[in-house]
């Protein structure tokens, strides 16, 4: 990503065209708590949804994927 953040999207089917916007919440970052990371994700995705970049269903998928990426990275 241009900003350097690492993001991950789960559950993408082969052959799916999608636009995956960068969110500034790197799941690998040194977050003081899970809640801090989750708030960053919530705010970034809400902003993208308000701007019309993400539909409601895409926003839900992105939010869940960001949480899973954080958990996978911490506990893998």
Concise description?
This protein is 49% helix and 0% strand.
Q: What share of the residues does DSSP label as strand, in percent?
A: under 5%
Q: Could you tell me the mean pLDDT?
A: 92
Helical coverage, percent range: 40-55%
For the report, how would you describe the main beta sheet?
none
* Count of separate DSSP helical elements: 2
Q: How large is the radius of gyration?
A: 12 Å
The rounded distance between the terminal residues' Cα atoms is 23 Å
Order of helices and strands: HH
Helical/strand content category: mainly alpha
Q: Strand tally, please?
A: 0
Which regions are unreliable across 5 or more consecutive residues at pLDDT < 50?
none
Instruction: Indicate the overall shape.
Output: globular
Please tell me about this protein's structure.
With 76 residues, the protein is mainly alpha-helical. The chain is 49% helix and 0% strand. The protein contains 2 helices and no strands. It has helices at residues 34-50, 56-75. Helix 1 (34-50) runs antiparallel to helix 2 (56-75).
Sum up the structure in keywords.
single chain, 76 residues, mainly alpha, 2 helices, 49% helix, 0% strand
Write the layout of secondary structure elements.
Layout: H1 34-50, H2 56-75
């Amino acid at each position: 990503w241009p900003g350097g953040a690492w993001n991950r999207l789960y559950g993408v089917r082969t052959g799916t065209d999608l636009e995956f916007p960068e969110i500034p919440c790197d799941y690998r970052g040194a977050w003081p708590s899970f809640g801090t990371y989750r708030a960053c994700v919530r705010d970034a995705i809400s902003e993208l949804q308000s701007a019309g970049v993400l539909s409601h269903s895409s926003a839900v998928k992105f939010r869940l994927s960001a949480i899973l990426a954080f958990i996978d990275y911490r506990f893998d």
